[in-house]
Design a protein that fits this description.
This protein is mainly α. 71% of the residues lie in helices and 4% in strands. It has a two-stranded antiparallel sheet. α3 crosses α7. The relative contact order is 0.16.
């Protein structure tokens, strides 16, 4: 929590002394409209992730074991992932991205944010030193995700929709897959078939890109709704 507070203070300082703005420039102060955006983002990505898991279940013939649900652990996981997602959003789609957009333009700033986000995951996943193919895969998948979330921040003028995406993705994935400190909270895979050769490559690319591509389509559709009047997106 202290780290998050430090990031918020640093963000305020950067915005105040570089752009003469306050923290509200990030669209971080909650109001009804932004809370609705956050909830919409959470449920959109939740549905997308569940569809992706269903497709994996069909293609790989996955068998799942259902655990007894511990609501206290799920709540703790929610708080953990909310704090983690907010921290990463403030770092990668916060004050620095806002300043870069003002100084070098949205296109360059969004691409730079995406590249840094992709490289960051080499370290967060602990795969530095692994095969170049794995590094390239993680870079493309997470970098593309970073691009869409940065694009979302730029277009919505707020971190709230992207925060909903980020929290929803991490939390729903922790329901089904092993992760630290919270993982397999509801179900666990007991068996599945393996793919080989190009079939494995094609499916891995689909599994990695499908959520983000679908999210991008949803963002473009949302931008046409009353949540984001056209005059705010010029």
């Amino acid at each position: 929590m202290l780290g998050l507070l430090v990031i918020i203070v640093v963000s305020w300082v950067l915005l105040r002394f570089i752009e003469k703005k306050n923290i509200e420039a990030l669209g971080i102060v909650p109001n009804l409209n932004r809370l609705i955006q956050f909830v919409i983002g959470f449920f959109i990505i939740a549905v997308i992730v569940l569809i992706n898991i269903y497709i994996e279940t069909i293609i790989l013939k996955v068998e799942w074991e259902l655990y007894s649900i511990d609501y206290n652990t799920i709540f703790n996981a929610f708080v953990y992932h909310l704090r983690s997602a907010l921290t990463e959003e403030l770092v990668f789609r916060g004050a620095i991205l806002y300043i870069l957009i003002q100084r070098i333009g949205a296109i360059k700033a969004i691409w730079l944010s995406a590249i840094v986000f992709g490289v960051y995951h080499w370290f967060s996943y602990g795969i530095i030193g692994e095969r170049i193919i794995l590094l390239a895969y993680v870079f493309v998948i997470t970098g593309f995700t970073g691009y869409v979330w940065a694009y979302t921040f730029h277009k919505t003028k707020s971190i709230m929709l992207g925060l909903g995406f980020h929290l929803g993705y991490n939390l729903i994935m922790s329901f089904f897959y092993e992760s630290q400190p919270f993982g397999e909270l509801i179900m666990s895979q007991t068996s599945k078939v393996g793919l080989i050769g190009w079939n494995e490559f094609y499916y891995s690319m689909f599994k990695g890109l499908f959520p983000t591509m679908t999210t991008l389509v949803c963002v473009k559709l949302l931008l046409k709704t009353k949540l984001y009047p056209q005059k705010e997106n010029q």
